[in-house]
Each structure stands twice: as C-alpha cells, then as structure tokens.
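Input:
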Amino acid sequence: MPYHWDVEDNEKEWLKDGPLVRYACFMDKPKFGHVFILEDEIFYNAKQHDIIEWNFYKDWHAGTNCGSEPWYLFHMLGTPND
Amino acid sequence: MIEYIGNCANIDWNSVIADCVNSEPEYIGPSHSKLDDIPGLDEVATIWENAGYKNLDQGGTVGWGMYIPGKQFDQDVITQFCTHFEIINYRTAWISEIKPGNFAPVHWDVNDNEEELAKLPPMVRYHCHIGKPKFGHVFIAEDTCFYNQEQGNTFKWDDRRHWHAGSNCGLESKFILNLW
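Output:
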C-alpha cells in the first residue's frame, strides 16, 4: 500500500461532532515482512494488540508485506467521548 | 547476528547512484527459477509460490535491478568501501535497486555455487544504505527492519545466508550496496 493518506467521503459530517482521532491496532502476532509506516515512524515486530494513536488522522502512511503470510491491521477513526 | 560497523558517507554515493540511474541494470532479479538445481533454491521458491508472489515479467511486483562494479558503476567504489572498513577480500559485490511498488520478498541469496560454498565456513556479508533516507524504503534482515538509515550506514552480517527482504512503498528508487 503505497504512500498515501486516507480520503474519507463523510469527513465533513463527522467533523460536526468534534475533532477526529485515528487509531491503529496490530491485530495479529508479529511476522516477518509486515511493516507499517506512519509519517517518519516505522512499526515492525509490534506486539499483538498494541494500539497507536495517530498525531493527525490525515497523516501520510504506507504498509508493506514482503513476508509469506497475509497481514491484518485494524483501524478506527472517530470522535472520542471526552 | 547483524551489527552496525560504521558510516562511509565519505564515498560519493550520490554519484554512484547517478551512474546506476543512467545505465541499464545488468539484469532484473530474481535470476533463478524453481526449476534450477541449486541447493536451497527450492525452499525460497516454494515460499514465494505459496504466498502468491509473481515476478515483474509475469505482471507481478517481485523484481529488483542488479548493478555490478566495473560495469554499471566504478570498481574503485568497492575498493574505497573495502579500504574504509578494512575488508581484506571479498567474493562478490552488487548494488540492488527496488523501484516504487516492487518487492524482494523474504529470501536468502542462493548463489550459483551454493554446493561448493556449503563446504566452507559461513561467510560474512555487508550491506550499506547508499541512498539518503526516504519514505517507504524498507529493508529487513533477520528480525531487524532498517528504516531511515543515514546515507553510508553499513552493517555486517555474520552469515551471508541470513533471511532478508526489501520493499519500496515510497516514491523513489531504493539502492543498497551488498558485498560478501
């Protein structure tokens, strides 16, 4: 998944509820070749269930898999309750 | 084990990369196919096949450019590199290029002479990040992911046969010098 930020169709509507925050969760156990890049930071061998909060929901990011098994990453974008 | 051994940014790597960019690679890897009778090759080829990888010439994304000293860039670069790190002798050296969107999936470098090499003690290998750090340039060896490495940063492997991989999810080509 090359260098990009995620364009959201409903962004304007969601922003009416407050600032958006984005999270990513490493759902799976770490495996060879599974790499996630967020701005200038790289995530490799992240522990299963580790969650990261992004500085900005539109941050540039990319993912690559040069291993031998599929790679899954869980994403959530929303307005925190507080 | 893979250890950092120093930086050789004193070598004009930008000029070396320009030489590569301005020439055609010696060939596009991988150079072997599963049908070749070389010890170790079948293991790598089977992993790729089961994972669904396809080479560039099959419409896939697996492929890398190979640049050879004395052909696409000056042999003297290797002399400078070996002098800097006090490497007394070496068997082979090359620069690999991974273009945006392409991969060198998990593998170890199976050599044409693997049968002969297997009779010898493990040989050390070196890799050097000859390009400036750029978004999406990923190199993995063993359990380490090398990212945002300074230009000239060099690492020594205790065995040339370590499993490694490279990927480029950025916007510009990635170049690495390899020597063993």
